[in-house]
UniProtKB/TrEMBL annotation:
Pfam families according to UniProt: VanZ
Stated name of the protein: VanZ-like domain-containing protein
UniProt keyword list: Membrane, Transmembrane, Transmembrane helix
Species per Swiss-Prot/TrEMBL record: Ruminococcus flavefaciens 007c
PANTHER family: INTEGRAL MEMBRANE PROTEIN, MEMBRANE PROTEIN-RELATED
Nucleotidyltransferase among keywords: no
UniProt lineage: Bacteria, Bacillati, Bacillota, Clostridia, Eubacteriales
Transmembrane residue ranges: 12-33, 79-96, 103-122, 134-152
């Protein structure tokens, strides 16, 4: 009886992970229009990249104004959305792969996946290639990972694998 419950639980984790991956791909790539028709790569690079840590975050948080821009609600969506999009990865990676339960391994994997997403967004000209996106995505993943230390989360996600 316990084994069948564990199998059902593991299957549910994999199904939810699949749904998360599809939703993340949609949000990160397919929800956005490509700038292929409108910009050259050099123009796109100039307008849609940021390699200065915390520049976009401070602009969006209203701590710094650039060219007197006021961002409003898009600021909250950007900051919280970037935190939220990789939050589930922090829970799913350790739930699915035992090696991901060590923080160093998880951190390296999360960083690699996030960098790959940022590069793909640049290559496909969808979204922006921003170090602040990386910082917020990584923080969201680490927050999710830290929740896996809670007994209730472990019970729900590490079904049959402990």
């Amino acid at each position: 009886m316990r084994k069948s419950i564990d199998r059902i639980g593991r299957a549910a984790v994999y199904i939810f992970f699949g749904v998360y991956v599809i939703a993340a791909l949609y949000l990160l790539f397919f929800m956005r229009i490509s700038m292929w028709k409108y910009l050259t790569y050099s123009e796109y690079f100039r307008y849609n990249t940021n390699f200065i840590p915390f520049r976009t975050i401070t602009e969006f948080a209203g701590l710094y104004r650039r060219n007197d821009k006021v961002y409003g609600d898009i600021s909250l969506v950007n900051i919280w959305g970037n935190l939220a999009v990789f939050f589930p990865a922090g829970i799913f990676f350790p739930a699915i792969w035992k090696k991901q339960r060590r923080f160093c391994t998880f951190a390296l994997t999360a960083a690699t996946v996030i960098i790959a997403v940022e590069l793909l967004q640049f290559l496909t000209m969808r979204g922006s290639c921003d170090i602040d996106d990386f910082i917020l995505n990584f923080c969201g993943a680490v927050i999710g990972f830290s929740l896996t230390r809670l007994k209730i989360v472990r019970r729900l996600t590490f079904v049959g694998s402990e």
